[in-house]
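User: Some background: our group keeps a shared notebook of sequences we're curious about, and every so often someone picks one and asks for a predicted structure to add to the entry. Today it's my turn. The entry only has the sequence so far, pasted here. Could you supply the structure so I can complete it?
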Amino acid sequence: MTVQNNEIDSFLGRHIEDIPYEVNLLDSIGFGNEKIYSILNINGEKFYSKPLKNVIIYVDETNIIKKVYTDFKGSFDSKFYNSIVDKYGLPTSISRRVNEKQLESEEIEGTILTETTGTLVECELKDNPDLIIWDSLNIKLTFIIIDELDKIELVMEINK
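Assistant: Of course. Here's the predicted structure to add to the notebook entry:
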């Protein structure tokens, strides 16, 4: 099954058992009694033109999907941007980091954690943004662009 252009965002507000994928419970003690699931066998699926790597689903205490996280390789190019604009209109915000400063680093169990500060400033797609947000009445899409890892993270959630 191929994930159609907006199929993942259509999961929002649905019962976890109503989506057409097999899921695996990852954590049943999230914030406010939420449960966290992953979709199994997502390899080869796409969101618009981007191959998906992972899809994580957050549900409330009644198993209604409130948030979906996914990530994919590649850049946030104009073709991908235009396909999102065609569905949701122009974004609410496009921004990039400036004045970034590393505060401290520490190693915990083989992983180096680095704390940084900086400022987000509005920009255009051509300015290599780090964050693009679509915030409508019903849904919020937050794209986090990590160029140094050739990765895009997407959080889709129901607006409260």
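Suggested note for the entry: The radius of gyration is 17 Å. The chain has one domain: 9-158.
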